[in-house]
Amino acid sequence: MLILVDQDGVLADFEHRLYQTWQQATPTHEHPGVAPHERRHFYAKDDYPEHLRDAVQRIYTAPGFFRNLPPIDGALDALQAMLARGHDVRICTSPLTLYQNCVGEKYEWVDRHLGAEWVARMVVTKDKTLVHGDILIDDKPHVTGARTPTWQHVVYNQPYNQQAPGLRLHWGNWQEILGTHPGWD
Ligand code: DGP
Ligand code: MG
After folding, report:
1. Which fold has domain 1-185?
2. Measured in angstroms, how far is the CA atom of residue 30 from the centroid of ligand 2?
3. Residues lining ligand 1, Cβ inside 6 A
4. Residue closest by Cα to atom 9 of ligand 1
5. pLDDT tens-digit profile of 104-123?
6. CA dist 140 to 4, 42, 164, 183, Å?
């Protein structure tokens, strides 16, 4: 199978780093920040009051934010295990429109945590429906674009996508969930 795996919120822990940076940078009497388990909207900004959204954006667009995201537990081992099982695995990620720091740092992140072989496996696009695949593992509840996708979206489980229907995968159950797919063996 050709398995597309999203980066932010699936491999790299955007949410914890954002919360941690907010807490370090902002006096808690103004706003304590939205803890990862309290996040309800896919876009972090939408979980904050309107007057604080620019401040949230400044955090994730700042130099070093994407470079320093911690890997989500189990994610890197899972990628290697999928590859070892004979699947073709690609990292399929959407850059911020404010791309200046995000794009290069996403590549740096993959190089640092997975190595050059995986840098060559990156597909960076705003529209994931234009990418072929059998499965897309992604934390976005509804992945849409210009075409009907060839892949089946398997939702990576996060507090902000609980409304999404269908199979829910995380790095503790991924073999079980993908094992139900006809192309797995
Ligand atoms: P992906 O994980 O490939 O679906 O990309 C989603 C991107 O959106 C990722 O870089 C994280 C980013 N993101 C998270 N919260 C916000 C937000 O509030 N506004 C914007 N523009 N992007 C956000
Ligand atoms: Mg994501």
Report:
1. Rossmann fold (3.40.50)
2. 28
3. 6-9, 14, 43-45, 93-94, 96, 140
4. 8
5. 999 999 999 999 999 999 99
6. 13, 7, 9, 23
* pTM, entire model: 0.96
Instruction: Give yes or no for a contact between 141 and 42, defined as CB atoms under 8 angstroms apart.
Output: yes
* Closest C-alpha among 83, 99, 113, 120 to residue 3: 83
Name the token pair of 128: 């994931």
User: Quick check: 143 and 136 in contact, CB under 8 A?
Assistant: yes
Closest atom of ligand 1 to CA, residue 128? 3
Who's near 135: CB < 8 A, 6+ residues apart?
A: 1, 2, 3, 4, 151, 152, 153, 154, 178, 181
DSSP 8-state assignment for residue 170: -
Residue boundaries of the structural domains of the chain: 1-185
